[in-house]
Amino acid sequence: MLLCAAALAGCASSPAPHGEVKGASASSREMGQSDTNRVATLAMRANLDGLYLLMDKLYRRNPAEWKKTAASREEALAKVRDAVEKRQSWPELQGKRDIAAMALALSPDFKGDRVAAFVYATADMIIVAHGNKIEFFLIDSLDAQHLYNAARNVEIGAWILASRRNPAGGPLLLSDEISADMRNLSFEREFGKIVGRLDLLATFITEKYRRAGISYVQNLLGGSFLQFLPVR
Predict the structure, then answer these.
(1) Torsion, Cα of 124, 128, 130, 133 (10° steps)
(2) The three-state (H, E, C) secondary structure of 41-58, written as one string
(3) d(Cα 75, Cα 68) in Å, to the nearest integer?
(4) Distance CA 164, CA 107 (A)
(5) Tens-of-pLDDT digits for all 232 residues of the chain?
(6) What is the 3-state secondary structure (H, E, C) of the chain?
(7) What is the distance between the alpha carbons of residues 100 and 94, in angstroms, rounded to a whole number?
(8) Residues 112, 90: contact at Cβ < 8 Å?
(9) How many C-beta atoms lie closer than 10 Å to residue 200's C-beta?
């Protein structure tokens, strides 16, 4: 009993490391951002990075795809990321953008690099929903319904990817795996994180003006009633 108690005490005092919160580096550009702008910018960065992570994972499970685009997986990753960040078109999508590009990338008859096309199209759709911007400042505004719709589009895209079949009867891309020996749902989790951020930002945007009014009233009340009074 004493040995068990000591072991438990040791576990309580020295938990296993699980990482820590790391904020973004400070930048002078933040001076032109409201709290809402900053939250939207951080969420956008996290969503794009999440898509790039999904792209890497999809390439690892589907190496034949990156071979259609580049000489190496790393080169294929860099090409897509560069096109997304610079708002360039993706040649295999025939000039299509937004949801039209997603539909083409998930078409059973699509012959190009499906990983690149799907990730690029999904990223483009999310950016379009944010007013075609990746970084946000005081002059920018966001539409909550567009963000909500983007979240649903990501859900639909993930569902199609997991359920639709190519002409040969196989999955469009290998992703999550559930079998007697393996349970890998990491793709579903990454898609879920992106959906969650989009939904939270949409809700936050709907409350922005109401909260501004409440803050104004709180400041008035605070100015009148919550200040200390002189005692001498």
Answers:
(1) 70
(2) HHHHHHHHHHHHHHHHHH
(3) 11
(4) 9
(5) 555 555 545 554 455 667 776 766 666 676 777 888 899 999 999 999 999 999 999 999 999 999 999 999 999 999 999 999 999 999 999 999 999 999 999 999 999 999 999 999 999 999 999 999 999 998 889 999 999 999 999 999 999 998 899 888 888 998 756 555 655 667 889 999 999 999 999 999 988 656 555 555 556 555 555 555 566 7
(6) CHHHHHHHHHHHHCCCCCCCCCCCCCCHHHHHCCHHHHHHHHHHHHHHHHHHHHHHHHHHHCHHHHCCCCCCHHHHHHHHHHHHHCCCCCHHHCCCCHHHHHHHHCCCCCCCCHHHHHHHHHHHHHHHHCCCCCCCCCCCCCCHHHHHHHHHHHHHHHHHHHHCECCCCCECCCCCEECCCCEECHHHHHHHHHHHHHHHHHHHHHHHHHHHHHHHHHHHHHHHHCCCCCCC
(7) 10
(8) no
(9) 14
Q: Which residues contact 188 (CB under 8 A, 6 or more apart)?
A: 158, 162, 176
| Amino acid of residue 181 | D
- The identity of residue 16, as a single letter, is A
User: Can you name the residues that pair with 177 across neighbouring β-strands?
Assistant: 184
CA angle 21, 43, 38 (to 5 degrees): 90
